[in-house]
């Protein structure tokens, strides 16, 4: 792996860097776990930033230009994501950009593309993902929500759970069982439905950090036109796995981890000097902070390994699982070190006495779900053991 940019990459990096420096609205920085429930002022800044990125096709940088993207290669996306993270600029695409947009580009009808893609790249239409069910998470192919054909519609009954942002979304893309007699991966179809459809009930699920991020939905005879099916009937399992030419290193999260370590160290230094918060800067905590700094660097190197594979045309497989596990578990360790540093002050979330405006406290609670969301640590370890180490399936 060549760590240095070649001339072309350096020029591209410089363009992206200057653009962000010039155009990112003052005061708007990515806040990670605080993104949900932002106040109206922040919403307005995010909206203006979204418009600015849209002018360049940078809301969906990996999409082909004809669909409103920037046609970036994985290498260019890596530089773009690295620069966005370095300057703490929020990414604003969401599930529309990462998931359903690429799927429609690959499998959608012309009508579906015309109806949905521009709303995603402009940021005007928000999407949510309805995959998980109360009885189907890691073993997603066991899903039971039914879609029964009735004339030009499917009639949907069942329930989805953990759907992030469903209460704010305009549309949901979801998987439903269209053939209950077929082997379980083969009887599933992907469908699109407006969240305003009659028969959908959305119940809020409040997470342990007190945030309303995800939801459970109940479908009672919801009608979805057959024209809203993406790809062939009963092929939804394969349609749902589309990624397009997507950069998978997650360099943004690796850099975010380094920012968090640095912020914690700066905070500890200042608090120790001014006495604003009685930080527990013991030798143990100092040693842990050093470990966390090393881990942030390791996370970055794993990201580099993945992008170097993609640049060579290889598809990261167990490497992506290693990356996800390392980042999510190191994130939990980082939050736990922060809690040791702040001691009882971790319990203060708001007001003048809350260290770092309660960010660390919220991160400590939110980080728990990181090893569950988007593939659990155990499932990823299975992938590493079988596909990476060649061990037999248990
Ligand atoms: C923050 C967050 C956001 C999410 N957003 C969405 C969303 O927008 N849309 C959506 O559809 N879903 C979403 N999910 C759901 C997520 O995809 C599931 O939680 C995840 O797939 C795990 O499924 P489960 O919760 O049913 O756990 P289960 O699959 O029931 O797993 C329970 C435990 O058993 C372990 N386990 C299961 N199978 C195996 C195995 N074969 N070998 C070893 N151990 C195993 C798991 O690792 C886990 O520890 C979200 C989850 C979180 C936490």
Query: How far apart lie the N and C ends?
Result: 35 Å
Give the helices and strands as they follow along the chain: HHHHHEEEEEEEEHHHHHH
Query: Which ligands, by name, code or SMILES, are bound?
Result: flavin-adenine dinucleotide
Helix content: 40-55%
Q: Regions with pLDDT < 50 over 5+ consecutive residues?
A: none
CATH topology of the largest domain: Butyryl-CoA Dehydrogenase, subunit A, domain 3
Strand content: 5-15%
Mean pLDDT: 94
- Alpha plus pi helix count: 11
* Strand segment count: 8
CATH superfamily of the largest domain: Butyryl-CoA Dehydrogenase, subunit A, domain 3
**Based on CA inertia axes, which overall geometry fits?**
globular
- Kindly name the structural category: alpha+beta
Alpha carbon gyration radius: 22 Å
Polypeptide structure, described:
The structure is a single chain. The chain is α+β, with helices and mostly antiparallel strands. It has 3 domains: 7-92, Acyl-CoA dehydrogenase/oxidase, N-terminal domain (Butyryl-Coa Dehydrogenase, subunit A, domain 1, Orthogonal Bundle); 127-239, Butyryl-CoA Dehydrogenase, subunit A, domain 2 (Beta Barrel); 251-388, Butyryl-CoA Dehydrogenase, subunit A, domain 3 (Up-down Bundle), CATH 1.20.140.10. The chain contains 11 helices and 8 strands. The protein has a 4-stranded mixed β-sheet with strand order 1-4-5-8. A 4-stranded antiparallel β-sheet has the order 2-3-7-6, with no helix packed on it. Helix 3 (74-86) packs parallel to helix 7, helix 8 (283-311) runs antiparallel to helix 9 (318-342) and helix 9 (318-342) runs antiparallel to helix 11 (377-388). The longest helix has 29 residues, at 283-311. The two termini are 35 Å apart. It binds flavin-adenine dinucleotide. Flavin-adenine dinucleotide (FAD) is lined by residues 129-132, 137-138, 162-164, 214, 369, 372-373, 376, 378-379, 382.
């Amino acid at each position: 792996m060549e760590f240095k940019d070649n001339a072309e990459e350096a020029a591209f990096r410089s363009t992206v860097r200057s653009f962000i420096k010039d155009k990112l609205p003052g005061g708007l920085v990515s806040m990670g776990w605080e993104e949900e429930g932002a106040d109206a002022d922040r919403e307005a800044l995010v909206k203006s930033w979204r418009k600015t990125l849209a002018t360049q096709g940078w809301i969906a940088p990996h999409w082909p230009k004809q669909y409103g993207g920037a046609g970036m290669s994985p290498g260019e996306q890596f530089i773009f994501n690295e620069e966005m993270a370095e300057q703490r600029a929020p990414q604003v695409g969401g599930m529309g950009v990462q998931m359903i947009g690429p799927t429609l580009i690959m499998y959608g009808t012309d009508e579906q593309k015309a109806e949905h893609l521009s709303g995603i790249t402009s940021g005007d239409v928000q999407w949510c993902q309805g995959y998980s069910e109360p009885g189907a998470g890691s073993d997603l192919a066991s899903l039971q929500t039914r879609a029964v054909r009735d004339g030009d519609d499917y009639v949907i009954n069942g329930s989805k759970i953990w759907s992030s942002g469903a209460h704010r979304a305009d549309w949901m893309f979801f998987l439903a069982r269209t053939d209950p007699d077929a082997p379980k991966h083969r009887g599933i179809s992907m469908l699109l439905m407006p969240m305003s459809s009659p028969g959908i009930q959305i119940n809020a699920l409040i997470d342990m950090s007190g945030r309303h991020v995800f939801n459970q939905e109940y479908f009672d005879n919801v009608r979805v036109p057959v024209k809203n099916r993406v790809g062939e009937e009963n092929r939804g399992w394969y349609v749902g796995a589309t990624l397009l030419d997507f950069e998978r290193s997650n360099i943004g999260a690796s850099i975010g981890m380094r920012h968090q370590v640095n912020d914690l160290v700066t905070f500890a230094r200042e608090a120790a000097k001014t006495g604003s918060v009685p930080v527990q800067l013991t030798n143990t905590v100092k040693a842990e902070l050093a470990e966390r700094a090393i881990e942030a660097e390791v996370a970055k190197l794993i990201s580099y390994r993945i992008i170097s594979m993609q640049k060579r045309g290889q598809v990261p497989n167990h490497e992506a699982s290693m990356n996800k596990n390392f980042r999510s578990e190191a994130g939990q360790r980082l939050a736990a070190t922060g809690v040791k540093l702040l001691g009882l002050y971790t319990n203060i979330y708001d007001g003048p006495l809350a260290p770092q405006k309660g960010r660390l406290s919220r991160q400590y609670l939110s980080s728990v779900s990181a090893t569950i969301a988007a593939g659990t640590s155990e499932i990823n370890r299975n992938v590493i053991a079988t596909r990476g180490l060649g061990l037999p399936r248990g």
